[in-house]
Design goal:
GO terms for molecular function: hydrolase activity. Keywords: Hydrolase. This is Alpha/beta fold hydrolase. InterPro entries: AB_hydrolase_fold (IPR029058), Hydrolase_4 (IPR022742), MAG_DAG_Lipase (IPR051044). By secondary structure, this protein is an alpha/beta fold. The chain has a single domain, classed as 3-Layer(aba) Sandwich (Rossmann fold), CATH 3.40.50.1820. The strands form three sheets. Strands 1-3-5-4-8-9-11-12 form an eight-stranded mixed beta sheet, sandwiched between helices. The longest helix is centred in the middle third of the chain and has 20 residues. The chain is globular, with a radius of gyration of 19 Å.
Length: 363
């Protein structure tokens, strides 16, 4: 189906006056206890040092009901329920950053569920610096997301397809979920996934360096060169993206202290590199059964493209269905680009989710 994109010249006005009021009417907010799933994965649950929502160790989520949304009768809504989409967000992100994408998914007939990963948004945190992201074991992210999808996600899918949308760090987590839980999702979109992070040096060198620093007690220290959040807007590093969208995200960060995650702890980097190794094991890729559509950004400074190519090839070699679409002029966040890029990107996503034959098509 074809959707009308938000006019970038009226972006903030449209988001404030149209999108947010509609989302408010169909949104459910909740807290997910991941302890049982983490124990089942061999991980001891963490209680959290900082719980911005006031719930020890629990993870915050937002869900949007397509049925309630259709009752609002927004212009352009399909009024045909197609299932649910679980969103796995990126590093330092938060659920409300995806309001625009949620809006489009709802118009297309999908309920949407977004879990804020540990250390992000209102979910439990384990370091005192509110700007820093730390995780002790990448498998915790995977267990949390899978358990959320198996319960809350399936509830919102109501017997219809349950799909996955991932971005960046969330894409690395999502790839691992697809390998370890091959029948959980019907289809999966990986948008600029963090199959491997860009570290500024060869990955093997980064592994040794970061491992050494963590061993010396730097596990919960901020990565050198990174800073805490400061309320000074800049398009540096996002040249070519939609300034209207970038300003909107920045406004959300400024207004919500829990959205001001901005830097990595050394242990987070070490775990990202461990995730990279695990996800690219041929035996793991051979377990994937969910059809995958991976979007790659040509001007990506945050994740590496070659490991994405390798992942797709390994999934294919293992008998899975996986295709790659490259946006050569796009920055890392394709959904933050101008409408000229965002629209074809969105159209491909919805075609992939909607068409029962699209999984075997060639892109």
């Amino acid at each position: 189906m074809q959707l009308t994109m938000i006019d970038e010249n009226k972006y903030a006005e449209t988001m404030q006056n149209t999108v947010l009021p509609a989302l408010e009417q169909c949104r459910d907010e909740g807290w997910f206890d991941p302890s049982a799933a983490e124990r089942a994965a061999g991980l001891e649950p963490l209680s959290g040092l900082m719980d911005t929502g006031g719930r020890s160790g629990q993870l915050h989520y937002l869900c949007y009901d397509a049925g309630k949304f259709d009752a609002i009768r927004e212009e352009g809504a399909t009024a045909t329920f197609r299932g649910a989409i679980v969103i796995s967000h990126g590093f330092t992100e938060f659920a409300e950053k995806y309001d625009e994408l949620v809006w489009y998914f709802l118009l297309a007939g999908y309920s949407v569920c977004i879990l804020e990963h540990r250390g992000h948004g209102k979910s439990a945190r384990d370091v005192e610096n509110p700007c820093m992201v730390w995780i002790d074991n990448w498998r915790r992210y995977v267990a949390d997301l899978a358990a959320f999808a198996e319960t809350i996600g399936q509830q919102y899918a109501a017997g219809m397809p349950l799909n996955l949308f991932c971005h960046s760090m969330g894409g690395g987590i999502g790839a691992a979920v697809l390998e370890q839980y091959p029948t959980l999702f019907d289809k999966a979109v990986l948008s600029a996934p963090m199959i491997a992070p860009a570290t500024g040096m060869p990955l093997n060198v980064a592994r040794v360096l970061v491992g050494t620093l963590c061993g010396l007690g730097f596990s919960k220290k901020r990565v050198f060169g990174q800073t805490d959040f400061t309320p000074e807007f800049s398009m540096k590093g996002n040249e070519g993206a939609s300034e209207a969208r970038e300003r909107w995200y920045f406004k959300l960060r400024c207004e919500n202290p829990e959205y001001q995650t901005y830097c990595a702890a050394f242990e987070w980097v070490r775990q990202a590199l461990k995730l990279n190794r695990a996800v690219l094991k041929p035996s793991a890729c051979a377990e994937v059964e969910t059809p995958i559509l991976l979007f790659q950004s040509g001007h990506d400074i945050w994740v590496l493209n070659k490991p994405q190519n390798k992942f797709i090839q390994l999934v294919k070699d293992g008998g899975g269905e996986a295709n790659l679409v490259r946006f050569p002029e796009s920055r890392h966040e394709i959904f933050s680009m101008p409408n000229s890029t965002y629209k074809p990107y969105l159209d491909k996503i919805l075609s992939f989710y909607d068409d029962p034959m699209i999984a075997s098509a060639s892109y």
